Amino acid sequence: MQCPCGSNISFKQCCFLFINQQAQARSPEQLMRSRYSAYAKKSADYIYNTYAESSRAHQSLTDILAWAKDTKWLKLTINSASEYADINIKKSINSDKKEDRSNTVCFSAYYQHQGTYFIMKETSRFIVEDSQWRYLDGEVSINEELPTPKRNELCFCYSNKKFKQCCGS
Predict the structure, then answer these.
(1) Which DSSP string do the residues of 36-90 spell out, in sequence order?
(2) Are 122 and 136 in contact (CB under 8 A)?
(3) Which domains, and CATH codes, for the chain?
(4) What pLDDT, in 10s, does the model give residues 66-106?
Protein backbone atom coordinates (compact mmCIF):
# COMPACT_ATOMS: atom_id res chain seq x y z
CA MET A 1 0.00 0.00 0.00
CA GLN A 2 1.37 3.41 -1.04
CA CYS A 3 2.12 5.86 1.76
CA PRO A 4 -0.62 8.47 2.31
CA CYS A 5 2.04 11.22 2.24
CA GLY A 6 2.36 10.84 -1.54
CA SER A 7 6.00 9.74 -1.53
CA ASN A 8 5.37 6.96 -4.10
CA ILE A 9 6.83 4.31 -1.79
CA SER A 10 5.05 1.92 0.52
CA PHE A 11 3.72 3.05 3.88
CA LYS A 12 5.87 0.41 5.65
CA GLN A 13 9.03 1.84 4.07
CA CYS A 14 8.04 5.47 4.61
CA CYS A 15 5.97 7.14 7.34
CA PHE A 16 5.27 3.90 9.21
CA LEU A 17 8.90 4.04 10.42
CA PHE A 18 8.35 7.46 12.00
CA ILE A 19 4.88 6.77 13.40
CA ASN A 20 6.11 3.56 15.05
CA GLN A 21 9.26 5.27 16.37
CA GLN A 22 11.65 3.16 14.32
CA ALA A 23 13.18 6.33 12.83
CA GLN A 24 13.18 10.08 13.45
CA ALA A 25 12.22 12.72 10.92
CA ARG A 26 15.39 14.38 9.63
CA SER A 27 13.65 17.45 8.21
CA PRO A 28 10.52 19.56 8.67
CA GLU A 29 9.15 18.10 5.43
CA GLN A 30 9.59 14.52 6.64
CA LEU A 31 7.82 15.39 9.88
CA MET A 32 5.01 17.12 7.97
CA ARG A 33 4.53 14.10 5.72
CA SER A 34 4.55 11.69 8.66
CA ARG A 35 2.02 13.80 10.59
CA TYR A 36 -0.27 13.81 7.55
CA SER A 37 0.06 10.02 7.29
CA ALA A 38 -0.63 9.74 11.02
CA TYR A 39 -3.89 11.65 10.53
CA ALA A 40 -4.76 9.36 7.60
CA LYS A 41 -3.96 6.28 9.72
CA LYS A 42 -5.62 7.74 12.85
CA SER A 43 -2.42 7.61 14.92
CA ALA A 44 -3.36 10.34 17.39
CA ASP A 45 -0.52 9.56 19.82
CA TYR A 46 2.10 10.31 17.16
CA ILE A 47 0.41 13.56 16.17
CA TYR A 48 0.20 14.66 19.79
CA ASN A 49 3.81 13.69 20.56
CA THR A 50 5.20 15.56 17.53
CA TYR A 51 3.79 18.90 18.64
CA ALA A 52 6.31 21.30 20.15
CA GLU A 53 6.00 21.39 23.93
CA SER A 54 4.53 24.91 23.91
CA SER A 55 1.90 23.86 21.33
CA ARG A 56 1.11 20.50 22.94
CA ALA A 57 -0.30 22.29 25.99
CA HIS A 58 -3.18 23.52 23.80
CA GLN A 59 -3.96 20.10 22.29
CA SER A 60 -6.09 17.21 23.41
CA LEU A 61 -5.43 13.62 22.44
CA THR A 62 -9.20 13.06 22.45
CA ASP A 63 -9.81 15.96 20.04
CA ILE A 64 -7.00 14.86 17.72
CA LEU A 65 -8.39 11.32 17.56
CA ALA A 66 -11.96 12.56 16.99
CA TRP A 67 -10.82 14.78 14.10
CA ALA A 68 -8.78 11.94 12.58
CA LYS A 69 -11.71 9.50 12.84
CA ASP A 70 -14.20 11.97 11.31
CA THR A 71 -11.94 12.92 8.41
CA LYS A 72 -10.83 10.98 5.35
CA TRP A 73 -7.51 12.35 4.12
CA LEU A 74 -7.28 12.16 0.33
CA LYS A 75 -4.10 13.81 -0.92
CA LEU A 76 -1.11 15.79 0.31
CA THR A 77 0.84 18.13 -1.92
CA ILE A 78 4.00 19.81 -0.65
CA ASN A 79 4.07 23.24 -2.31
CA SER A 80 7.41 24.29 -0.83
CA ALA A 81 9.75 23.41 2.00
CA SER A 82 12.50 25.61 3.36
CA GLU A 83 16.14 24.70 3.50
CA TYR A 84 17.08 23.47 6.94
CA ALA A 85 20.16 22.69 8.95
CA ASP A 86 20.85 19.06 9.78
CA ILE A 87 19.48 18.29 13.24
CA ASN A 88 22.91 17.05 14.36
CA ILE A 89 24.63 20.28 13.31
CA LYS A 90 22.07 22.88 14.33
CA LYS A 91 21.40 22.39 18.02
CA SER A 92 18.98 25.26 18.54
CA ILE A 93 16.60 27.16 16.31
CA ASN A 94 15.12 30.51 17.21
CA SER A 95 11.38 29.81 17.09
CA ASP A 96 10.22 32.82 19.11
CA LYS A 97 10.31 35.28 16.22
CA LYS A 98 7.19 35.30 14.05
CA GLU A 99 9.27 36.46 11.09
CA ASP A 100 11.51 33.38 11.33
CA ARG A 101 10.52 31.42 8.22
CA SER A 102 13.62 29.21 8.17
CA ASN A 103 11.86 25.93 9.01
CA THR A 104 8.58 25.97 7.16
CA VAL A 105 6.58 23.65 4.94
CA CYS A 106 3.78 24.97 2.76
CA PHE A 107 1.31 22.28 1.77
CA SER A 108 -2.15 21.61 0.40
CA ALA A 109 -4.29 18.81 1.80
CA TYR A 110 -7.49 17.47 0.30
CA TYR A 111 -9.89 15.81 2.71
CA GLN A 112 -13.47 14.70 3.19
CA HIS A 113 -15.27 15.62 6.40
CA GLN A 114 -18.88 14.63 7.08
CA GLY A 115 -19.46 13.87 3.39
CA THR A 116 -18.11 17.20 2.12
CA TYR A 117 -14.80 17.69 0.28
CA PHE A 118 -12.34 20.41 1.28
CA ILE A 119 -8.94 21.82 0.41
CA MET A 120 -6.71 23.30 3.08
CA LYS A 121 -3.51 25.22 2.41
CA GLU A 122 -1.18 25.83 5.34
CA THR A 123 2.29 27.12 6.07
CA SER A 124 3.61 25.14 9.04
CA ARG A 125 6.54 26.09 11.28
CA PHE A 126 8.87 23.59 12.93
CA ILE A 127 11.48 23.69 15.67
CA VAL A 128 13.98 21.28 17.16
CA GLU A 129 13.32 20.11 20.73
CA ASP A 130 15.28 17.35 22.43
CA SER A 131 17.13 16.74 19.16
CA GLN A 132 13.91 16.05 17.24
CA TRP A 133 11.85 18.09 14.81
CA ARG A 134 8.51 19.23 16.26
CA TYR A 135 5.48 20.98 14.76
CA LEU A 136 5.20 24.45 16.30
CA ASP A 137 2.21 26.00 14.55
CA GLY A 138 0.66 26.72 11.21
CA GLU A 139 -1.08 29.49 9.36
CA VAL A 140 -4.01 28.29 7.28
CA SER A 141 -4.44 30.48 4.20
CA ILE A 142 -7.29 28.50 2.62
CA ASN A 143 -9.78 26.04 4.05
CA GLU A 144 -12.69 25.86 1.69
CA GLU A 145 -15.33 23.47 0.51
CA LEU A 146 -14.92 21.97 -2.94
CA PRO A 147 -17.78 21.07 -5.24
CA THR A 148 -18.07 17.31 -5.71
CA PRO A 149 -17.05 16.43 -9.26
CA LYS A 150 -19.25 14.18 -11.37
CA ARG A 151 -18.08 10.57 -11.55
CA ASN A 152 -16.35 10.87 -14.94
CA GLU A 153 -14.83 14.32 -14.42
CA LEU A 154 -11.18 14.70 -13.52
CA CYS A 155 -10.59 14.55 -9.80
CA PHE A 156 -10.07 17.86 -8.01
CA CYS A 157 -6.84 16.62 -6.42
CA TYR A 158 -5.00 16.92 -9.77
CA SER A 159 -4.21 13.21 -10.03
CA ASN A 160 -5.32 13.22 -13.71
CA LYS A 161 -7.68 10.36 -12.86
CA LYS A 162 -11.44 10.34 -13.09
CA PHE A 163 -13.10 11.22 -9.80
CA LYS A 164 -14.74 7.76 -9.55
CA GLN A 165 -11.26 6.14 -9.79
CA CYS A 166 -9.63 8.51 -7.33
CA CYS A 167 -11.05 10.45 -4.36
CA GLY A 168 -14.60 9.36 -5.19
CA SER A 169 -13.85 5.66 -4.87
Answers:
(1) HHHHHTT-HHHHHHTB-HHHHTT--HHHHHHHHHHEEEEEEEEEEE-----TTT-
(2) no
(3) 11-165 (3.10.450.50)
(4) 998 999 999 999 999 987 655 553 444 444 443 344 699 99
